[in-house]
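Recap from last week: sequence in, structure out.
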Amino acid sequence: MDNDRDGAQHALTGLLDRLEATIGDDSATIGDIADAMGPQGLAALILVFSLISTSPASAIPGVTTFVAAVVLLLLGQMLVGRHCAWLPGFVGNRKLDADKLRTGIDWLRKPVEFVQRFVRPRLTFLVHRPWVIVPMLLVACLCLTMPFLEVIPTSGSIASAIIALFAAGLLTRDGALVAAATALLVALPLLFRAIAGG
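Predicted structure tokens:
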């Protein structure tokens, strides 16, 4: 059990380390990042892209929409039972700026290190079917709305953070994180209404 907990607690920073290792001098392709994620490719890639959209990179027009499209593609594969990610060529060959990626990774390290102190395998039935299908469908619905959220300040980052929470729960087998993400997904429309009204 202690080994499982230690592995879960290092999974998130290990993911950032692998992501950083894929970055070349000028850029990294999304295909290279997918290859670096290993056997947990789908959950890891969803986490990576949602973290990118949570970081300051989300301020770049179109980033939130692009991330939502990729996450939706990965979720579709997860729903049909795939374990390894498949990306179309125009997505896999897309290059990401090295400096912006490194800046985003550095920005993410502190919050990720804070969160991973509390993760551990628990309520693991919630990360398996049929229970996990509900939050997956909720995340898919959220992805469909994310292009419209770019007009509401901070809403794209909030949505991406909740997706990251869900993916982190899958990656670390922490059903409590998945349950928390599900509750936030259900409450999200009220939050966005408050933000838009404020």
